[in-house]
Write a structure and sequence with these properties.
By secondary structure, the protein is α+β, with helices and mostly antiparallel strands. It has 13 helices and 5 strands.
């Protein structure tokens, strides 16, 4: 039996690592396609690009592991079924459960490893990735001078080039507008040719111009008669030296993003949820105590505990006042003043409630985001185990190995899982009480299917046979018709 288990493990490990790399590559390409515009033309060096890819792959590992588990299990057991190896094992008295046992052990270990990775590694990678992306967004595009178009990439200068050599080193028919004095286009330089070089640290630009002239508009000294004086300076060679700002990558501090939900471990998430929940509760109590009909109370809301606030609010809100008696015994002026005061207090209270409602709703959504992230670390880890019990029996039923049919089935199932998971997460984000039902929705749907498929595959039941399902529904209709006939008789 140990040799059989070792053979199953060897058959599973190879496809698993291959499909994991394929899944990571596909997810990485999809991610890069979304953020391609923010990366292209920034002059990033290879080390920065490699760093960005490594952090992104670490972030995508939570989705790649379940997909790789599903695809590898279908390929492994589909290949065993296609080569009649599963049939030989079952003929020898070995059940499907015993055949799956070593893979189940590996899947359990992978589930714990996936949770640890999601809880410890991904928060660190997320902070580094967000900090790097924020730094790249602020990085100015690389200076690219095109033919026949004014370029404003250089501070205080607008440059137009008639033509340039294919290698871009030599420029011809150059026109430059100098805006360094903030007086408009008063200085214009025209040159026959020139070269433009940027230092390696991307802090300075040197523009060497040849055979040209500079036209400068001067300020008129005669206020009575409008004149337009100008000065023309011809040159054989002239150099323009300017400082470039925002061309080098300035790293942002990662601690700026440490309070985001994906940058926290589960223990930190619990702490943040509890802290925000306390602030939300005290905000609601502060709103109640701030109503216009309340008597003034010298209470430090920030220092109240839940028991203290209950003791203070309850007697104030339940204080009995005989409004009818007080109203009827008063004069007409008193009654009119009471009504006006009540209306003003009601309007003020309504305005105050509307102003604080958005703050309370926003705080509640923030709590839900932290709660969702806490649950997602468990759901994505358990998904590795669930997809094993879906992929292994599917492979045993369809009996197709390789990368053809298994990829199609895996992609379709994973898309359904992702749609259900995303939909449940959106519902949880807007939930008022508990968020666990929406986050765990995909697990509750796919887990029974895994149990059902495993049971059918273990008992050699025909699941994807159309004729078998047709006979099944025919029997149901026959039973229904017989019952109708018996009731009519």
């Amino acid at each position: 039996m140990k040799r059989l288990h070792l053979y199953i493990v060897k058959s599973f490990i190879g496809p698993f690592f291959v499909t994991l790399l394929i899944s990571l590559f596909v997810l990485l390409m999809q991610f890069l396609w979304v953020y391609l515009d923010e990366l292209v033309g920034k002059g990033l060096d290879f080390s920065t690009i490699l760093e960005f890819i490594v952090y992104t792959m670490a972030m995508l590992m939570s989705m790649a592991l379940p997909l790789a588990m599903l695809l590898a299990s279908i390929m492994t057991f589909g290949s065993l079924g296609e080569n009649n190896e599963l049939l030989a094992m079952k003929a020898a008295g070995i059940s499907l459960y015993r055949i799956m046992k070593p893979v189940i052990v590996l899947s359990i270990l992978l589930t714990f490893g996936s949770f640890y990775f999601y809880n410890q590694v991904i928060p660190v990678s997320y902070k580094k990735l967000i900090a790097l992306m924020s730094s790249i967004r602020q990085l100015r595009p690389e200076i690219i001078v095109k033919e026949g178009i004014f370029s404003n990439d250089i501070d205080n200068y607008s440059i137009k080039v008639g033509r340039k050599k294919p290698n871009g080193e030599m420029l011809y028919d150059i026109m430059i507008y100098d805006h360094t004095d903030d007086k408009g286009s008063t200085i214009v330089t025209v040159a026959d040719s020139g070269t433009m070089k940027i230092t390696k640290d991307k802090k300075y630009m040197i523009l060497n111009l040849y055979s040209g002239q500079t036209n400068t508009e001067l300020q008129s000294n005669n206020n009575n008669k409008p004149t337009y004086p100008a000065r023309t300076d011809k040159f054989t060679k002239e150099s323009i030296f300017t400082v470039l700002q925002g061309m080098e990558l300035e790293r942002k501090d990662e601690s700026i993003f440490k309070n985001q939900n994906r940058a926290l471990t589960n223990d930190q998430l619990v702490y943040y949820v509890d802290s925000i929940a306390r602030l939300l509760e005290k905000k609601r109590i502060e709103q109640c105590l701030s109503f216009s009909y309340m008597p003034p109370l010298a209470i430090n809301i920030a220092r109240l505990s839940r028991k203290d606030t209950a003791k203070i609010v309850k007697p104030v809100l339940t204080k009995y006042v005989n409004i009818d008696s007080a109203f009827t015994h008063g004069t007409a002026n008193v009654r009119s003043g009471t009504i006006n005061t009540a209306l003003n207090n009601a309007r003020n209270n309504l305005r105050f409630i509307q102003q604080n409602e958005e703050v309370i709703v926003s705080t509640k959504r923030n709590i839900n985001r932290f709660d969702i992230e806490w649950h997602k670390k468990y759901t994505f880890a358990i998904a590795c185990l669930i997809f094993l019990f879906i992929g292994a029996p599917l492979g045993a039923i369809i009996r197709k190995g390789g990368l053809g049919m298994p990829i199609v089935i895996s992609v379709v199932l994973f898309i359904f899982y992702w749609i259900i998971s995303t939909t449940g997460e959106k519902f949880s984000r807007e939930a008022s009480d508990s968020v666990w039902s929406g986050v765990w929705l995909s697990t509750f749907i796919f887990m029974p299917w895994g149990i059902f498929l495993t049971y059918k595959a273990a008992n050699d039941s025909v699941v994807f046979n159309i004729h078998a399902w047709g006979d099944f529904f025919k029997r149901i209709f026959r039973i229904g018709k017989k019952k109708e006939q018996e009731t009519s008789n």
